[in-house]
Design a protein that fits this description.
Blueprint: E1 18-25, H1 31-54, E2 57-63, H2 71-75, E3 82-89, E4 92-98, H3 102-105, H4 109-125
Parallel strand pairs: 1-2
Antiparallel strand pairs: 1-3, 3-4
Length: 127
């Protein structure tokens, strides 16, 4: 299946910061991998609809297998399907975090949503 379209609004002025949440996956995905992606998107839409609408927050599911995306494996030290939150300032990435607890919370719906929202909220507060 085709990847979901990124959730983002119009580009923000170059000097403004933004937070980008990436879900990195491979072509072959298990039910847990698909659930993680769906829950992450739900967490962002439910918790940060306004930030998504104004472009302060973006959601990007990315398949790391095509050659043009393999650099993410090295950029974020990926070893499994991962949810990464990254903060950008003036067009440059200034910090990032791998939300590693997604695997243990994947089947704990409400706890997963709270975890992702807390971590993303912390990055948004730094803008």
């Amino acid at each position: 299946p085709a990847p979901a379209a990124p959730l983002s609004a119009a580009p923000r002025p170059e000097g403004d910061g933004k937070v980008v949440v990436y879900y990195f996956y491979t072509t072959i995905r298990c039910p847990t991998c698909r659930r993680i992606e769906a829950l992450a998107e739900e967490a962002l839409r439910a918790g940060f609809g306004q930030a998504l609408a104004r472009g302060a927050l973006e959601w990007h599911p990315v398949n790391v297998q095509p050659p043009q995306h393999r650099h993410y494996i090295y950029d974020f030290q990926l070893y499994a399907k991962s949810l990464i939150v990254a903060r950008f300032q003036a067009g440059r990435q200034v910090e990032w975090k791998n939300l590693a607890k997604i695997w243990e919370l994947a089947w704990e719906g409400r706890a997963f949503l709270k975890y992702v929202q807390a971590e993303v909220g912390e990055y948004l507060r730094r803008l």
